[in-house]
Amino acid sequence: MQPKINESLNQLLLVSGEKYLVEHAGGHDRLVIGVAVFHPLRKEPSVLIVQRAAHESFLPNVWELPGGHVESSDNTIIDAIVRETSEETGLVVTHVVGRFSDFVYTVPSQGETVRSTLQLNVAVLIHGIEGKDPDVKLNPDEHQKYAWIAESDLADYEMTDGMGKVVSNALEWGRENTHELILVT
Prior knowledge:
Elements: E1 4-5, H1 10-13, H2 17-24, E2 30-37, E3 47-52, E4 63-64, E5 67-69, H3 77-89, E6 93-108, E7 114-126, E8 143-149, H4 161-176
Parallel strand pairs: 1-6, 2-7
Antiparallel strand pairs: 2-5, 3-4, 3-8, 6-7
């Protein structure tokens, strides 16, 4: 099922990752997405973070937003948002409601090569059962724990400086756009 998309994001997200890199992200080797899943029941904006598995070779045990690489098999960036959210958390994205600041980082790859990565960050709403907490089901190959956090909780979770800023930006977006976090059915 294709999620509903805030109209202002259509042109941005309804393209392939490859096309996005060519048209908007000159100089970056790959595109990933960060998905700020907002808790549907909390009055104060709270987002889902996941802890990387202990066996990960890159940043084990560190907390992050769900997300990942936009694959060549993803027809659009929206497809990657839906796929990554489902694969990592078992949650179903119903609405892509906003975008907040991008994140650029480098990752060592084979040998001495360093890859420049652009992380496109979006805010989403998920399918749920009214009045019940979302049923998060982690993929143990990738993550070992999850938490719903508000701004006041940030210091309690080990994140890279960059990811800490991304999560803080997501929560700030949520505070400034609370009207986007309420679904009218």
